[in-house]
Write a structure and sequence with these properties.
This protein is an alpha/beta fold. The protein has 20 helices and 21 strands. The chain folds into three domains: 172 residues, ATPase, nucleotide binding domain (Nucleotidyltransferase, domain 5, 2-Layer Sandwich), CATH 3.30.420.40; 154 residues, ATPase, nucleotide binding domain (Nucleotidyltransferase, domain 5), CATH 3.30.420; 224 residues, Carbamoyltransferase, C-terminal domain (DHBP synthase), CATH 3.90.870. α7 packs antiparallel against α11, α11 packs across α12 and α15 packs across α19.
Amino acid sequence: MKSILGISAFYHDSAASILINGEIIAAAQEERFTRKKHDASYPFNAVEFVLKFSGLKLNEIDQIIFYEKPFLKFERLLETYVAFAPSGFKSFSKAMPIWLRDKLFQKNLLFTELKRHDENFKDINKLFFSDHHLSHAASAFFPSPFEEAIVLTADGVGEWATTTVAVGNGNNLEIKKELHFPHSLGLLYSAFTYYTGFKVNSGEYKLMGLAPYGTPIYTDKIINNLIDIKEDGTFRLDQKYFNYTTGLTMTNKKFDSLFNQSRRDPAKQEITQFHMDIAASIQKVTEDIMIKLARSLKDEYKIDNLCLAGGVALNCVANGKILKEKIFNNIWVQPASGDAGGSLGATLALWHIEQKNPRQVNPNDSMQGSYLGPEYSQEEIIDELKKIGANFEILSENDLIEQTAIDLSEGKAIGWFQGRMEFGPRALGARSILGDPRTSEMQKTLNLKVKYRESFRPFAPSVLREDASEWFEIDDESPYMLLVSNINSKKTYNMSEKEKALFGIDKLNIKRSEIPAVTHVDYTARIQTVKKEVNQKYYNLIKRFKEKTNVPVVVNTSFNVRGEPIVNTPYDAFNCFMGTELDNLAIGNCYLKKIDQNKQLKKNYQNEFELD
């Protein structure tokens, strides 16, 4: 038996993954254990979990691999500071002590941390380092359902690369070309995230959700000033508008002058139509670049399949546009596309590329629905709930599904905690909050009373795979909620002239379809298709809901509040349930109703987590 432990850490979204004989066994992000969103620290808890799940001690692991090369990253920082001297001195003087103390000697740092898991672990030669973008590319190709594919990775920056193209075939994967820092689509998008007052490496989802409320009137201004886009989708950024190479912010005063407005202060300024139009504009530019890249790669390599990874691959709207353009026959996106997935990609790269082990292609993919995290037995759930002082009833699986379907159909918001936790940023029916998509009030209720977040943010539908094309303009697999598609026109309502004239957030309250709670203002939805063989309990719930309502769709959002990582344990789930206006909680085969709970157990949850 051959085992490889993968680790990503020290930037954001630290994680650990384990591979045994080439099979993905377990993977989890550190944030789920520490309850600190995007936790970047050494993933001690995640490593402990994957080791325990695989039944191995650390000294029994054959190889350990880190997802990137620290020396190359340090080289990039030094060269950047030299190139932009003397303007970068402030950030140089802040970064260098940390690098010289910790990051430059990461091999020793990792070795010291690893010894905490197992005092018998003494072999530093078991520790290897992958390339950041190779880790991303391997995470996208090797678990994919394709024998051959083009692999496009795009994010902020790894060591030097910001965008890479690779070709995968069987157990081989080769990076063919790269774009280098400071020219980065991820950093461009993050610059606009920062400018509109959201948090970088966290608020990019918000910018994407805000975009449909605006009109892309600044697209030409972006293309004529900030970025030079070539016909093949490659690009260069004009650094005089940005501050990320040398400063401590993303944009500068020149950037503010270009758009005649300074950066929004989220503590003092509301979101205006200007911010919606800015969001729409950068989203349009991002989509156009991704489509140009996809077209030129298809023309060059003549391969029908595309795999995507890296933070930009979480832009499900852009992914959906590539799919809609029918450039490729098939698209597969790694569900943990960000840095967390790098821990998994590093193990796969070592196994297949370095060690030349054969690859078995799974026609569904090899991610097991991305249900790779911890799970709890019914006994553990009961013990935990009793310890907390919760009141609950234990139901058979059929009765639990029946009760949940009834409550959903009556407009209740339900916490759903079942099986193994998801790996990646999306809740996929294991740690989810569910609702009825037929009521337009559900979006507002979930945003304001349960998630405590901005009212404009859209919710995703989970739909039975066999019914997807009847409700949405998609007939492809979308198991990881990483493709956006239009609502099927047969299910939509036309807007009146008065409604069409509305601006911005006023558009939110218009009922656009038979499933308004998951219909965004531009008639789109971020779809999760659900198959029986991947998640039977969740599939059965949606099927039962369909039998009651004739709608094979439920609202699915992550089980957390704004700024909180997705819940991991029964204790986390109960706290979130009691601290929000969720009505009921289905956890294992235990069913909890809010009205039956001791009010003393309710905590003020709204201010528990730092806002994202």
